Each structure stands twice: as structure tokens, then as C-alpha cells.
């Protein structure tokens, strides 16, 4: 096999890491490629699920003795602590790896320190290769670890004129089956799906991740969270159907904000505590407005259908904007056609306060 550069190996490691998306929380996604002394790939691995072997361990097992004197190329600083598995820093040293190339340092104080341990053992360590790309691949985990609350994606569906239902209340289905399949795939990459009690009372959604064609459930289901200040979720609501874990988050349990409703920062802190690193906010318009007004949305994914309604509820209600100068500015990062619909991904620009 031909030798590959460290840069190419890191590109491959980032690709491998992505295979773990949605399955590793509360751990990060990590990919690792091992090169022997000639620069040939002798091992590849990724962290596939929480509690499972880390990427480095999988790659080392493949490489066996060929790891000796070689280079480990890894998307995140190897861990330095014993959790459900042993420290990867020690495993790399024991395998005789002479160089470790890391994209991003580990911000988690519990697990960081791997680079220092490797250096102390005489292993060469380089940091920052394809760092931006690796950061983007692990954005939810890295963001949530750095600040202590989950990465929040607000997803909505609307007509081209921004309506989420017709004036008589009918809303099924604004977007196409292709878009709904895409949403289920998105659900499969997060740890929790959030909806306000208004949506539960109106639409009675299941909020599970499933294959819409044959109805089969995804192996790993996100935690379903109903944001419900006074516990109005009906006993027979579908979110309580036992198909996945559900948390009815009330103001009594989480704490109340100044308006008496569920305190959103406290809700996110509790979700982080429960191991949620990425959360999908599925509305509705009142809850989404409150999240946006509080600056708690990290990414917006809008599915826009080629339809016009002209009247009816909008996809977003009060988001704390009363004058155009206060509009929430977005940077559009992706526009993709999904069936007949458009999927627009955007990042809110940080507001100066
Ligand atoms: N187009 C879309 O993508 C989409 C997505 C979802 C829903 N929808 C539509 O939205 C409609 C329901 O709208 P909605 O606005 O009533 O529902 P909602 O946003 O799902 O729920 C709003 C409720 O959340 C509760 N809540 C708890 N804490 C809150 C807080 N801190 N801030 C704001 N709200 C908080 C409030 O009730 P309590 O105070 O009693 O807790 C509030 O009335 C349905 O017709 C549904 O079809 C559309």
C-alpha cells in the first residue's frame, strides 16, 4: 500500500469520526489512523458508541506490532484517564508509537492531559492539523463541553411565506416525505429532541427517530423532552408511549424564569448534566422564539416548501425583536434541495449586548 501524508491521514480520521455521530454521547466522536514507519496505513478506528473502545484502541488493535515507531493521527487529544476504558495515552505509549498528531485538544478537564503524558514519555506530539475541519465535525460536543450546556439546533418546516399551518389549523404535511425522512436522520444524530407543550397538545407527535418508509425505529433513540411549565402533557400523549425515554420538564422540577415558565438556561444545564451534548428543538413557534430571544440557539435548519398560504400561524413567534435593527442576523452555511423542498442551514450571528 502506498504511503499517505499526515494531512491525508487526518482527513481520513475526520471521515471515520463522523461515523460515530449520534451514538457516542456523552463522549465525543473521534477517528484515528495509524501509519507505520513508512507512512503506510496499518490501522483505522473510530469511537462507535459510549462505553465502547476508543478510536485509538481500535486502530492499535488492527496495527498490532506495526504500530511500533509509527504515527498515530487522531482527531481529538487522546484521553488520559480511566473511565469505562483505559487511558489511550498509555495504550499509545505501550504500543511504541513514536509520534502522535492531534487535530484538536480535549477541553474536558477530566480526560485532557493526554498530550502532556505522551510528551513526558518521549513521544513527539503535534497539534492543530486540520483543526478547523475536526472542530466542525465535533462541533456539538466541543461547544457543549466548553460552556456546560448542549448545542441547540432549531429545526422548523414552513411554506415559502413562512407559515407553519393554514388558517384552519391544518398543517399535514407542509414539507415532502423526503424532507421528513431527512428530519428523522437529523434526530438520529442528537441526544435529545425538545418540543413545547403547545405542540404536544396540538399535534400529539411521537418525537422518535424512525424509518418513515417501513416504520422501524432507529436503534438509538434521543431523549424526548416536553417543555411544559405546569405539567399539562396528557397522560395518553404519544410522547409517553414508552418507545423512547421521555422527560416532561416542568417549572417545578427545573425552576421557573421571570415569566413563570420553565427556565431555559436551567433546562439546558440539567440536560447537560444528563449527558445531552446535542439537542434538536422542534418547536413550536412560542418555544423557539423564547430560545432565540435568550440567545440559546446554535444552528437553524429550516425546511422550506414550495407552497404559499398567505394566512395562518407562522413558524416563529416573539423572539424578542421589536425593531428591524434588532433582527437576528443569520449566516447561511448550506442550502440543499431535499425532494421538492429546500433545506437551509444557518448560524445566528452573535449579538452584541
Ligand atoms: N412548523 C413547524 O416546524 C412546527 C414545529 C412544531 C410545532 N408547530 C406548530 O406549532 C403549534 C403549537 O405552537 P405553540 O407555540 O403553542 O407551541 P410550543 O412552542 O410547542 O409550546 C409553547 C408552550 O411551551 C411552554 N413553555 C414552557 N416553558 C416555556 C418558555 N420558557 N418559553 C416559552 N414557552 C414555554 C408554554 O406553555 P406552559 O407555560 O404551559 O408550559 C408555551 O405555551 C402547532 O400548531 C404545531 O403544529 C410547527
Summarize the structure.
Helices cover 26% and strands 22% of the residues. It has helices spanning 6-18, 55-63, 88-94, 114-120, 131-137, 139-147, 177-187, 197-203, 251-254, 264-273, 285-293; strands at residues 31-35, 41-46, 71-76, 99-104, 124-127, 151-159, 192-196, 223-227, 246-249, 278-281, 299-305, 330-338, 341-348.
Give the secondary structure arrangement, pairings included.
Blueprint: H1 6-18, E1 31-35, E2 41-46, H2 55-63, E3 71-76, H3 88-94, E4 99-104, H4 114-120, E5 124-127, H5 131-137, H6 139-147, E6 151-159, H7 177-187, E7 192-196, H8 197-203, E8 223-227, E9 246-249, H9 251-254, H10 264-273, E10 278-281, H11 285-293, E11 299-305, E12 330-338, E13 341-348
Parallel strand pairs: 3-4, 4-5, 6-10, 6-11, 7-8, 7-10, 8-9
Antiparallel strand pairs: 1-2, 1-3, 11-13, 12-13
Bound molecules: NADP nicotinamide-adenine-dinucleotide phosphate.
NADP nicotinamide-adenine-dinucleotide phosphate (NAP) is lined by residues 156-158, 164-165, 171, 195-199, 202-203, 227-230, 232, 257, 261-262, 264, 282-287, 290, 315, 317.
Amino acid at each position: 500500500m502506498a504511503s499517505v501524508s499526515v494531512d491525508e491521514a487526518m482527513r481520513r480520521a475526520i471521515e471515520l469520526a463522523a461515523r460515530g455521530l449520534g451514538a457516542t454521547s456523552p463522549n465525543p466522536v473521534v477517528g484515528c489512523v495509524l501509519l507505520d514507519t513508512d507512512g503506510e496505513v496499518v490501522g483505522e478506528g473510530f469511537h462507535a458508541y459510549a462505553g465502547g473502545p476508543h478510536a485509538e484502541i481500535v486502530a492499535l488493535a488492527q496495527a498490532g506490532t506495526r504500530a511500533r515507531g509509527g504515527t498515530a493521527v487522531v482527531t481529538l487529544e487522546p484521553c488520559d484517564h480511566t473511565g469505562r476504558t483505559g487511558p489511550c495515552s498509555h495504550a499509545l505509549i505501550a504500543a511504541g508509537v513514536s509520534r502522535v498528531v492531534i487535530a484538536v485538544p480535549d477541553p474536558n478537564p477530566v480526560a485532557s492531559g493526554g498530550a502532556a503524558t505522551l510528551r513526558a514519555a518521549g513521544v513527539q506530539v503535534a497539534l492543530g492539523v486540520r483543526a478547523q475541519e475536526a472542530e466542525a465535525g465535533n462541533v456539538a460536543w466541543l461547544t457543549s463541553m466548553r460552556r456546560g450546556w448542549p448545542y441547540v439546533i432549531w429545526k422548523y418546516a414552513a411554506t415559502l411565506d413562512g407559515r407553519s399551518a393554514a388558517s384552519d389549523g391544518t398543517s399535514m404535511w407542509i414539507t415532502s416525505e423526503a424532507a421528513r425522512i431527512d428530519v428523522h436522520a437529523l434526530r438520529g444524530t442528537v441526544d435529545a429532541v425538545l418540543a413545547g407543550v403547545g405542540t404536544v397538545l396540538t399535534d400529539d407527535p411521537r418525537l422518535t427517530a424512525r424509518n418513515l418508509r417501513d416504520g422501524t425505529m432507529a436503534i438509538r433513540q434521543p431523549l424526548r423532552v416536553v417543555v411544559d411549565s405546569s405539567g399539562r402533557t396528557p397522560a395518553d400523549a404519544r410522547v409517553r408511549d414508552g418507545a423512547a425515554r421521555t422527560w416532561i420538564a416542568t417549572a417545578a422540577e427545573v425552576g421557573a424564569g421571570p415569566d413563570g415558565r420553565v427556565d431555559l438556561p436551567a433546562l439546558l444545564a440539567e440536560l447537560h448534566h444528563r449527558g445531552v451534548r446535542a439537542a434538536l428543538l422542534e418547536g413550536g413557534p412560542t418555544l423557539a422564539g423564547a430560545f432565540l430571544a435568550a440567545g440559546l440557539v446554535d444552528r437553524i435548519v429550516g425546511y422550506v416548501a414550495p407552497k404559499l398560504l398567505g394566512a395562518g400561524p407562522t413558524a416563529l413567534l416573539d423572539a424578542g425583536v421589536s425593531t428591524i435593527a434588532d433582527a437576528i442576523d443569520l449566516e447561511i452555511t448550506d442550502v440543499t434541495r431535499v425532494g421538492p423542498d429546500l433545506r437551509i442551514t444557518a448560524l445566528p450571528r452573535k449579538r452584541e449586548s
